[in-house]
Amino acid sequence: MQQPLNATPLGVTTDEFGRPIIIMRAEGDDKHHLRGIEAQKENILAAKTLANIVRTSLGPRGMDKILVSPDGDVVVSNDGATIMQKMEVTNEIAQLLVDLSKSQDNEIGDGTTGVVVLAGALLEHAEPLLDKGVHPIRIAEGYERACEVAIQELQRIADVHPFSSGDVESLVQTAMSTLNSKIIHTHKRHIAEICVKAVMAVADLERKDVNLDLIKLEGKNGGRMEDCCLVDGIVIDKDISHPQMAKDIDDARIAILTCAFEPPKPKTKHKIDVTTPEEYEKLHGQEQEYFRRMVKLCKDAGATLICCQWGFDDEANHLLMANELPAIRWVGGVEIELIAIATGGRIVPRFEELTAEKLGKAGKVREVSFGTTKDRMVFIEKCANSKAVTIFVRGGNKMIIEEAKRSIHDALCVVRNLVCDNRIVYGGGAAELAASLAVHAAADAIATAEQHAVRAFGDALDTIPIALAENSGLNAIETVTSVKAAQLKLKNPNLGIDCMDAGTTDMKAQKVYEALIGKIQQVKLATQMAKMILKIDDVITEDPTA
After folding, report:
1. Would you tell me how many other CB atoms lie within 10 Å of the CB of residue 188?
2. Do 141 and 450 form a contact (C-beta atoms < 8 A)?
3. Is 276 known to be catalytic?
4. Can you give the pLDDT at residue 542?
C-alpha cells in the first residue's frame, strides 16, 4: 500500500471483516503529545524556570529586572507581578504562574514574587516523589493537609497590631517593611506616612473597608522623590484653557459638564449655502448667541470654574475669558467622576439642567507650573467631601515615577489589608520557618504515603528564607539552619533572616512586619496552583518544538 506524502503511520486496526486499516497522520497535523510522568516533568521544569527568574528579586536586597518591549519601552522593576506581565510567556504552564501572580496582586497587592517562588518550590520538591512512584493525587492531598497545618500555625503566631485614627505608627512601620525592597526604599518613611494618611482619609473604620479607587496616583517628571506629597483633593494633568484666565480660585463653585461648549449639530447630513455677507453675519450671530446662552446658564448657576469633558474652540474660550469664567477642557472620564466625588457636585449632561445645587465645592483651585518647562497641572484642594485624595509623585524620569507608583500601590494595599484585618506576622522568612517546623512535626503523625508530600511541603517553605539569604549575600544553608535551630530551641517564631545586617535575627525588634491575610493568601494560592499542575498528565500542543 502506497503511503501519501508527508504522512506517518500512527497505528494499525482492523474492520469487521478482519482487514487491516492503517491509521495515518494527516498532512499538516503536527500536534505534539506528552503523557504521564513525562508531561508532569515538563510542566514542573517550566514552572521551576519561571520561578528561578523572579527568585533573585525577592527581599530587600533583591535584584531588579530590565524589560524591553518590542516598541523599545524600558521597564526596570523588581515587582513580581510587573515582571511576569511584561515577559512574553508562551508556555502554557508558565502562563498559569503569570495568572497566579496577577491573582495575588489583585487580591492582596503584595507578595507577588513570593507566591511564584513558593509555587515553583512546591513543584520542585514534588519531582523526587514522582520519581519514587508516589501518585500525583496523593502528593496533592498531602500538600492540602500541609497547607491547613501551615495556615493554622500562621494564625497561632500572629500578633494583633492595634491602631486608631490618632495613632497610626504601627501601620507606618508595616508600610515601611513593604517598601524595603523597592526602588524608593531610601525615602520609605516619607512615602509610608503618605500612604497611611491616604488610606485613613478614605477608610471606613467602622465597616473596616477601604476603597482604593478613591486614591489617585499622579506623577510628573522632574523634582526629587522627597517632593512627593499627598493632595487633599484631585490633581488633573491639564491646564486652565486660556492664559489670561484666573490661575488661583478660592471657594470655587465647579460646574462639572459632559456636554460640549459648541452649537448643536444636526444628526443628518446637511449643507448650507452662504451667498451674501448679510447671511454670514446672521449665521455668525446665531452661533455667538448659542455660546452666550451657555455661558449665561453657567454664570446664573453661580459657577466660578468650568470642568468640561469635551473641548471647545477659541471663540468659546475667548467668551469664557471675557466673562471671567475659568475653564478646564478635555478632562478624562475617570477624573470627572473623582472631581464629582471629592467636591460633592453632580455631573451635568445638559446646560439646561445646571443649577446651584449641582455645583461642586472646593476651598482652593490652583494651576501649578513645573520648572522651566511649560508643564502645568491643576490642583483641586480642600474639597467639600475629602473622600478622594491624590498622591503626587515626583522623580527624575518616567521610569522611576512608574516604579514608584507600583511601589506605592503595594504599600497602599498592605495598609488597606491591615485596616480590614490588623493581625500581622513577622517577615524575613520567620513566618515560613515557623510554619515549616509545624508542618514537619505534623508529618510525624501521618501513617500514609501522604507523609512524604507533607514533608516536601515543609521543605518547600524553607525556599523563601533560603532565597532571602542568597539575595543578601549570606551563606544560605548555614544561615537558615542556624535560625531554624534557634526558633526550635527558643520557641520564638519571630526569628528570621537578618538581610539588612542589623545585628539581630529578631524580626520583631527589627520591625519587619507582614499582613497575616497576605501571607495566608500566598500559601493558599501557591498550594492550589501546585495541585492543579500536578494533576495534569497529558499535554497536547500544536508545535512539536513547544
Report:
1. 19
2. yes
3. no
4. 67
Q: Which residue has the higher pLDDT, 26 or 436?
A: 436
User: Alpha-carbon distance 213 to 217, whole Å?
Assistant: 10
Instruction: Determine which one of 105, 232, 239, 410 is catalytic.
Output: 410
Find the catalytic residue in 56, 113, 174, 390. Answer: 113
Q: What percent of the residues of the chain are helix, what percent strand, and what percent coil, each to the nearest 5?
A: 50, 20, 35
Work out the percent of the chain whose per-residue pLDDT is above 70: 93
Angle at 51 between CA 424 and CA 457, to 5 degrees: 60
Burial class (CB in 10 A: 0-12, 13-18, 19+), 185: middle
**Which residues make Cβ contacts (< 8 Å) with residue 445, sequence separation at least 6?**
none
Q: Which residue has the cell 448667541?
A: 289
Active site residue 112: yes
Confidence of residue 149 (pLDDT cuts 50, 70, 90): very high
Apex 156 CA angle, 152 and 160, nearest 5: 130
Does residue 338 register a pLDDT over 50?
yes
Query: Phi and psi (nearest 5°) for 185?
Result: -65, -25
Measure the CA angle with vertex 334, ends 331 and 336; round to 5°.
50
What number of residues does the chain have?
546
Select which of 112, 304, 463, 505 is catalytic. Answer: 112
Question: Could you give the dihedral angle defined by the CA atoms of residues 36, 37, 39 and 40, in that order, rounded to the nearest 10 degrees?
Answer: 120
pLDDT given for residue 22 in this prediction: 75
79 is known as an active-site residue:
yes
376: phi then psi, degrees, rounded to nearest 5: -135, 150
Evaluate the CA torsion angle 108, 529, 123, 531 in order and state its sign.
positive
Does the pLDDT at position 295 exceed 90? no
CA distances from 534 to 42, 101, 149, 456, 544 (A): 11, 18, 20, 14, 22
Pairing of strands 305-308, 327-328: parallel
Closest to 433 in 3D by CA, of 456, 415, 460, 412? 460
Strand 32-35 with 538-541, pairing: antiparallel
Whether 376 and 49 have beta carbons less than 8 Å apart is answered as: no
For residue 182, what is the DSSP state?
A: S
Task: Supply the Cα-derived Rg of the chain in whole angstroms.
Answer: 31
Tell me the per-residue pLDDT of 48-86, one tens digit each, with 9 for 90 and over: 988 998 899 888 888 888 888 888 888 888 888 888 888
Q: Which of 83-97, 129-143, 243-257 has the lowest mean pLDDT?
A: 83-97
Question: Is residue 416 a contact partner of residue 212, using CB atoms and an 8 Å limit?
Answer: yes
Of 79, 105, 462, 498, the catalytic one is 79
Closest to 347 (Cα-Cα) out of 377, 312, 309: 309
The 3-state secondary structure of 423-492 reads EEEECCCHHHHHHHHHHHHHHCCCCCCHHHHHHHHHHHHCHHHHHHHHHCCCCHHHHHHHHHHHHHHHCC
Q: Which three cell numbers stand for residue 435?
A: 510554619
113 is catalytic: yes
